[in-house]
């Protein structure tokens, strides 16, 4: 059986179907309901290599019920860009709910973390989650 891409080139049928990997805790094997399809791919070109070298993968969504969470409010200057900065930054430390192993952090996105509102009207900007690669292990492949 031969598959052709949009440009008439032969294509591997296995590559035609997108696969997503589900991850569990690297220490105890607890299922974290963390899927590779929820990875943040918007900035793959700009800072991806730097974060991969640090062993960090970013996600736009996680199942927060699978993690123990500790909320922190830090009073320290931070810079989003040359013209965007702030003093107060909220973050959430994420640990495995079963073994309490540190998995990563969730940061509120943007400078509007304490003031303003988003489309949901709850006054919070969306979170981005930064997960340590070494704290994960693949659970299964879904087709």
From TrEMBL:
Q: Name the segments for region: Disordered.
A: 1-20
Q: Which domain of life is it from?
A: Eukaryota
Pfam families from the UniProt entry: At4g08330 (PF24046)
> InterPro entries from the entry?
At4g08330-like
Q: Which PANTHER family match?
A: METHIONINE-S-OXIDE REDUCTASE, OS01G0833400 PROTEIN
- Would you tell me the protein name for this molecule? MsrB domain-containing protein
What lineage does the source organism belong to? Eukaryota, Viridiplantae, Streptophyta, Embryophyta, Tracheophyta
